[in-house]
């Protein structure tokens, strides 16, 4: 091998870069473990919503250290986070959604809300067609509109309006208008994407992945590790309704709190038959409210700095005291009488207090001038000393129409900034219309010494006072007790404003951190066991040469993880499976090389010449086999999403690194050992005679093979037609929940409960891993509003199944997937809308047929005869049909999930790649024998080629099966069906490469004039 020094140099550089990249992962893991320990230390584990409080504390810790040097000044946490090896949802938990921007809403907006009959009819028809169609919504709309006689897009009642002035004139034809509308729609899509990207780019400490999926109006958003799922969903589909309101002072509204408290005390006492509430307690609290000291009301500070006593006596109140003062007894700190905060409560009491204050009979006690008051809340904040969240109550000066004096549409710019004291603020500017109203509002607030609340989606972000006079020009600052992340959140939404159209979640996957950690553990176990078994086998079979292959394999794994970290690729559980499968690919390359070296040694060549010729002769087979596998992985990456792309990514990287380590790293060790004349046997005393002198007439057995395969294919087709397949919600649409119970469950009983008319009408439950864990799927209201239907389904699940959970488990705890170390309830959920399900199925079919076409062409180019391509593709069809048939026959009886989903499609494509890998190695040897054995007839040539590769075929298949079985047994429930498909595929693929692909190639080629010459008359084999 030439340029050994250069190879060593690159190998060392790659190793150093890989180790360097992986140090960032080590650093982030250490910092995040410290954050977890801190959060668990300051939060009371028995507090309500302890999991969400722990998450809030964890985020606060990470925010505080984000810009600080860690590990001796090596980097900052934020810097390490950007460069770490990223883990996917199935390993880290988090949320993955695909949003569909409503093209209908955009068209209606462009038509200025037109109610034209033709326009609305076309929209309604497009709504129906998009449910089952594959074209875009816009294409369907145009088709339906053009089908209406006399309908004109450029009508003044539709698109020739003020909104589209200058672009569409009333005398334009429909053909003229269509490209303009398409261009305008694309502009809106880009705007929607930009809005969402700005909203979540700086969302906490996660690593969001945001992609615009072609021109479909769909946006993919992945946020691994994010536990605040509700906040994410609100941020993604929320309307970002920003409003500015005048607020009442605490002193103005305090009398109502006292009156409402007395009303509810009387009501509770009446219901319980108790005495009227103690008026003395009421008066004491009212006096406390009245004597609070005034605080600074400047625009640069929020008036919520009251200290909360960590020894607050509220913890000692009993039920009688709560009944005596239902509202006031829950006040943790009263607000400043001149400030906007009425009082501070536990966040857990927010809903209860809101119900008390909004009760119509209680509101009758309001001062008539305050009858339109609207009670709003600030953002919940974790108190480190108390260990639970606090929340401030505000009273907004609303009106009969409930319309704010100023809305967020007037904002032209907003950014996170710092004031002169270094305090985090948000700077904003308004257009001329907004600036005028803002000046009027700040004038009134200054004159009355009141405040103006900044309310985003009914949450008060700030309520500053106006101490320095009216604000003219529309430029101002919002200050508060913001963290940098919170200020960036607010500024991003202020600047981005509302989405240009409704955003609907059409696919959603949420995985809790507990399930993610279990997946990591299972993945690591499977990886370690598979690796150990392969290392031992290679050393056992090839001796010292096998040891060198093992070292190259370990270097290969280092390169793979280093490359994933360097490229910013996401590691998923299927990705780990891809890495482990790469072990088999890497071993295959070394097996090919070692077997060729053994052949050269058997010919009597010197060791040096045998090594040189063995590597050279094996190179063609290695390249052909790996290129076909790489092509299928590339197609899988193009058509797949999420974890499937993770599998394809690691497989492609693994193929490239395997080639480098097998061809160059192994060669360095072998040449280095033999340079002083040392002998290397490439075998052991146990395996020296294995698979030697094989001379089997494989072609003679082809008729029996055709019969067996024909029977299996016919049986598979019959099963597919009768028993069919168990299609997952990826392809049918629906929702699937993974739920863990306190006891072992009977899936049939749960299916019966949930399928009753009063629950879902139709549902299916299957054991998922352990006997106390079920995967429950349903299509209930799959077309309904996601947030509302999801909440309804969670409520129905809890109420229907709560008999199987601990008595003290609440519905909120049941549905909260963010809890770490969660024992019971929903562990993950997955949702696919019917429209995208059709698209996923279509894309999967494209991926399968696309891979077959690409590989057919590649083999045709490489082998120059279409008969080779025919044999390879026929074998692939054979393998795929049999794998589908096995799944059809066994999915009802196997104790693990065997749904046909995107992961199964990945398995099918991997089977295609593996089958082709085997077939190409055999074909490559046949091509070689045709050139060398010119005195052999064609049948003998084919049999000899197969016999000479049988050692490699069985060795590679055995090591690959060892790897797959290790993952199947130890790799976790979520990929067990995926692994089962691969195991069946490897077995069938090994068989088909010898008994299907080669015989079909032989039979089709020997009957043509293009067949290889033969030295003697050929008998029918």
Summarize the structure.
The chain is 56% helix and 12% strand. With 1021 residues, the protein is an alpha+beta fold. Strands 5-6-4-19-24-21-23-22 form an 8-stranded antiparallel beta sheet.
Overall description:
- The strands form six sheets. An eight-stranded antiparallel sheet has the order 5-6-4-19-24-21-23-22.
- With 1021 residues, the protein is an alpha+beta fold.
- The chain has 31 helices and 24 strands.
- 48% of the residues are buried.
- Helices cover 56% and strands 12% of the residues.
- Helix 17 (513-542) packs antiparallel against helix 18 and helix 19 packs parallel to helix 21 (643-674).
Describe the secondary structure blueprint for this structure.
Layout: H1 4-42, H2 50-65, E1 69-70, E2 75-76, H3 77-83, E3 86-87, H4 89-92, E4 94-101, H5 103-110, H6 117-132, H7 137-146, H8 174-200, E5 209-213, E6 218-224, H9 229-237, E7 242-247, H10 250-272, H11 279-290, H12 319-324, E8 333-334, E9 341-346, H13 350-358, H14 360-363, E10 374-377, E11 381-383, E12 388-396, E13 406-407, E14 411-418, E15 424-430, H15 432-448, E16 451-456, E17 459-462, E18 476-479, H16 484-496, E19 503-511, H17 513-542, H18 544-567, E20 570-571, H19 573-602, H20 607-639, H21 643-674, H22 702-722, H23 729-732, E21 734-740, H24 747-754, E22 764-768, E23 770-778, H25 786-801, H26 811-815, E24 825-832, H27 834-863, H28 866-890, H29 902-932, H30 938-970, H31 976-1006
Helix pairs in contact: 1-2, 1-3, 1-18, 6-7, 8-16, 10-11, 17-18, 17-19, 17-30, 18-19, 18-21, 19-20, 19-21, 19-30, 20-21, 20-27, 20-29, 22-28, 27-28, 27-29, 28-29, 28-31, 29-30, 29-31, 30-31
């Amino acid at each position: 091998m030439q340029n050994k020094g250069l190879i060593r140099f690159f190998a060392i550089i790659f190793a150093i870069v890989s180790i360097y990249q992986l140090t960032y992962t080590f650093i982030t893991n250490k910092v995040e473990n410290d954050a977890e320990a801190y959060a668990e230390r300051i939060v009371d584990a028995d507090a309500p919503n302890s999991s969400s409080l722990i998450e809030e504390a964890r985020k606060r810790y990470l925010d505080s250290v984000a810009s600080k040097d860690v590990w001796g000044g090596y980097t900052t946490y934020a810097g390490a986070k950007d460069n770490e090896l990223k883990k996917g949802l199935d390993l880290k938990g988090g949320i993955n959604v695909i949003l569909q921007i409503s093209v209908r809403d955009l068209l209606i907006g462009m038509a200025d809300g037109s109610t034209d009959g033709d326009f609305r009819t076309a929209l309604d028809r497009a709504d129906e067609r998009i449910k089952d169609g594959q074209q875009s919504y816009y294409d369907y709309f145009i088709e339906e509109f053009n089908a209406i006689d006399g309908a004109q897009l450029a009508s003044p009642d539709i698109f020739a309006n003020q909104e589209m002035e200058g672009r569409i004139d009333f005398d334009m034809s429909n053909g003229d208008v269509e490209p303009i509308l398409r261009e305008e729609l694309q502009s809106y899509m880009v705007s929607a994407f930009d809005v969402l990207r700005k909203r979540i780019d700086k969302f906490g400490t996660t690593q969001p992945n945001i992609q615009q999926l072609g021109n479909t109006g769909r946006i993919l958003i992945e946020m691994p590790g994010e536990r605040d799922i509700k906040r994410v969903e609100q941020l993604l589909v929320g309307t970002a309704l920003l409003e500015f309101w005048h607020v009442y002072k605490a002193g103005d509204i305090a009398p109502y709190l006292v009156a409402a408290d007395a009303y509810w005390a009387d009501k509770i006492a009446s219901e319980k038959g108790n005495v009227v509430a103690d008026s003395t307690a009421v008066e004491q609290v009212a006096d406390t409210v009245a004597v609070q000291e005034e605080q600074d009301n400047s625009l640069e500070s929020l008036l919520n700095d009251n200290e909360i006593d960590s020894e607050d006596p509220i913890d000692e109140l009993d039920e009688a005291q709560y009944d005596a003062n239902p509202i006031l007894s829950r006040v943790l700190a009263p607000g400043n009488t001149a400030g906007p905060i009425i009082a501070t409560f536990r966040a857990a009491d927010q809903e209860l207090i809101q119900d008390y204050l909004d009760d119509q009979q209680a509101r009758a006690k309001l001062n008539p001038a305050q009858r339109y008051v609207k009670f709003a809340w600030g953002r919940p904040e974790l108190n480190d000393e108390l260990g639970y969240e606090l929340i401030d109550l505000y009273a907004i000066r609303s009106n009969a129409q409930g319309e704010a004096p100023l809305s967020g549409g007037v904002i032209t710019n907003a950014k996170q900034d710092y004031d002169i004291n270094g305090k985090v603020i948000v700077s904003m500017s308004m257009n001329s219309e907004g600036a005028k109203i803002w000046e009027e509002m700040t004038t009134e607030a200054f004159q009355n010494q009141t405040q103006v609340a900044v309310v985003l989606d009914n949450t008060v972000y700030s309520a500053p006072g106006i101490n320095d006079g009216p604000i003219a020009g529309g430029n101002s600052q919002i200050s508060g007790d913001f963290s940098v992340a919170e200020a960036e959140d607010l500024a991003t939404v202020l600047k981005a404003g509302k989405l240009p159209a409704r955003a609907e979640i059409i696919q959603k996957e949420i995985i809790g951190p507990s399930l993610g950690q279990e997946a990591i553990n299972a993945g690591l176990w499977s990886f370690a066991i598979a690796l150990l078994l392969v290392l031992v086998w290679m050393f056992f079979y090839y001796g010292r040469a096998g040891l060198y292959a093992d070292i190259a394999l370990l270097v290969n794994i280092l390169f793979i993880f280093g490359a994933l970290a360097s490229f910013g690729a996401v590691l998923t559980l299927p990705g780990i499976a891809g890495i482990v499968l790469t072990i088999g690919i890497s071993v295959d390359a070394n097996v090919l090389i070692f077997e060729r070296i053994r052949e050269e040694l058997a010919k009597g060549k010197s060791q040096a010449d045998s090594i040189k010729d063995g590597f050279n002769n094996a190179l063609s087979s290695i390249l052909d086999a790996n290129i076909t596998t790489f092509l299928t992985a590339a197609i899988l990456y193009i058509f797949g999403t999420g974890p499937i792309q993770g599998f394809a990514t690691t497989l492609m990287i693994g193929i490239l690194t395997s080639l480098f380590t097998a061809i160059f790293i192994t060669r360095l060790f072998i040449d280095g050992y033999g340079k002083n004349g040392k002998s290397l046997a490439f075998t052991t005393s146990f395996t020296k005679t294995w698979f030697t002198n094989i001379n089997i007439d494989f072609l003679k057995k082809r008729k029996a093979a055709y019969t067996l395969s024909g029977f299996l294919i016919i049986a598979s087709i019959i099963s597919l037609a009768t028993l069919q397949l168990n299609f997952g919600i990826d392809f049918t649409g629906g929702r699937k929940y993974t739920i863990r119970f306190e006891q072992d469950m009977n899936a049939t009983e749960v299916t019966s409960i949930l399928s009753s008319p009063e629950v879902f009408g139709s549902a299916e439950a299957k054991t998922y891993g352990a006997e106390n864990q079920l995967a429950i799927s349903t299509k209930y209201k799959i077309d309904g509003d996601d947030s509302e239907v999801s909440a309804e389904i969670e409520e129905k699940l809890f109420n229907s199944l709560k008999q199987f959970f601990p008595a003290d488990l609440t519905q909120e705890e049941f549905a909260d997937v963010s809890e770490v170390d969660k024992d019971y309830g929903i562990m993950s959920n997955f949702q696919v809308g019917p429209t995208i399900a059709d698209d996923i199925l279509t894309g999967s079919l494209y991926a399968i047929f696309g891979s077959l076409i690409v590989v057919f062409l590649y083999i045709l180019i490489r082998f120059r005869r279409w008969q080779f391509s025919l044999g390879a593709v026929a074998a692939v069809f054979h393998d795929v049909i049999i794998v589908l048939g096995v799944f059809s026959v066994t999915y009802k009886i196997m104790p693990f999930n065997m749904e046909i989903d995107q992961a199964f499609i990945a398995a099918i494509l991997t089977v295609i790649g593996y089958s082709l890998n085997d077939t190409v190695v055999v074909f490559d040897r046949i091509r070689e024998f045709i050139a060398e054995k010119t005195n052999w007839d064609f049948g003998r040539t084919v049999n000899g080629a197969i016999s000479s590769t049988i050692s490699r075929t069985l060795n590679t298949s055995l090591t690959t099966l060892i790897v797959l079985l290790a993952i199947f047994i130890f790799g976790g429930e979520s990929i067990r069906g995926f692994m089962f498909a691969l195991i069946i595929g490897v077995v069938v693929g090994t068989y088909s490469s010898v008994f299907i692909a080669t015989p079909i190639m032989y039979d089709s080629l020997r009957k043509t004039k293009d067949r290889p010459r033969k030295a003697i008359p050929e008998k029918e084999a």
